[in-house]
Amino acid sequence: MNKLKHFFWLCSGANRHILEKCPTEGSKYAGIGATIFFTGLFAALAGAYALFTVFENYVVSAMFGIVWGLMIFNIDRFIVSSMRKEGNSKKEFYTALPRIVLAVLISLVIAKPLEMKIFEKEINSEMELMEQKSLAEKEGEIKLRYSADQEKINNEIMVLKSEIDQKTKKRDELRKMVQQEADGTGGSLRRNAGPIYKIKKADADRVEKELEEISTKNQKLIGLRNEKLNNIDEQILKEIQSIGRDKMNGPAARMDALSKITEKSSAIWLANWFIIVLFIAVETAPVFVKLISQRGPYDHLLLIEERDIQSQMYERLAGQNVEIKNRVKDFPDIEKEYIDENLQASLNRS
């Protein structure tokens, strides 16, 4: 149990030797360290899953996940360990604000791959629809490319058929007139096969012959154009079959699918935000715990140790200055003034 506590102390970035002198602070820093550790663990899992969706390689994904988790762990550890309790809440908050913003950004980066894993089934269903839509759009582009040629050929076929229909209609009208002239129901209203009948019969026979010629000619042309249409249809079908069915499985496509399903379903949108808020709370927890906690024995001892180191540095600098002054006693007055000014400036900077 002590080894686990010491491990979490290490994760929190606290000074173990000082903490051992403050039994009341041990649990607090163990909790902070545990939060930082598990945040790094979640980051490793999220990073590994995100990279697996790209390369689909377990070894590469695991290695990247470990590196990513260690990086997030190190950043979190630095953020918490670099905060100091000075007894001024307002100043401490402003000092911690950039760290809070960084923690929020880290939590969003960590949360996104895990969100995609949690909603994996819904995302896969949405991605199938997206693939079908993409395929339909590509098919539409291919058909659109040939639509002008198809329309032109269909118009030509309609003109050819219209010529046949018009000539057929004319032939039928003349035949009707010939019949009416023959039975006396029209024309001269005389039932006979006289000269008028013969003239109308000749006109009908002439149009009949023209109809046969136009029908033969136009049917041949219509057949050629139908053959062109069939060739175009075959070419369209060939190009459609050659379309590669893009497998949408990358992070960008999954994020797009997640965005679409959150727009469609308010329940998924709410669950998605709960996950994001949860990770923000987990990631920022160590910072806020450090902010809201009272200044304890650990902070006092740490400040004393830092002040001791600082005072030792000042004493060493002062000793060096005295030694330098002793060495320059025999220097001319102008040079001694110059050296004194530089020594004083160095002390002021330190």
Secondary structure blueprint with pairings:
Layout lengths: L1 H11 L3 H4 L6 H30 L2 H24 L7 H30 L1 H64 L11 H47 L9 H14 L1 H27 L4 H31 L5 H17 L1
Helix content: over 70%
**Number of helical regions:** 11
What count of domains describes the coordinates? Answer: 3
Largest sheet features: none
Approximate shape: rod-shaped
Terminal Cα span: 44 Å
- The count of strands amounts to 0
**Which spans of ≥5 residues are poorly predicted at pLDDT below 50?**
none
Kindly report the average pLDDT value: 77
Residues in β-strands, percent: under 5%
SSE order, as H and E?
Answer: HHHHHHHHHHH
Q: Structural class from helices and strands?
A: mainly alpha
Instruction: Using the CA coordinates, give the radius of gyration.
Output: 46 Å
Report a brief summary of the structure:
With 350 residues, the chain is mostly helical.
List keywords for this structure.
3 domains; 350 residues; single chain
Describe this structure in words.
The chain is mainly alpha-helical. It folds into three domains: 2-122 and 251-294, no CATH class; 130-241; 296-350. Helix content is 85%, strand content 0%. It is built from eleven helices and no strands. The chain has helices at residues 2-12, 16-19, 26-55, 58-81, 89-118, 120-183, 195-241, 251-264, 266-292, 297-327, 333-349. The radius of gyration is 46 Å and the shape is rod-shaped.
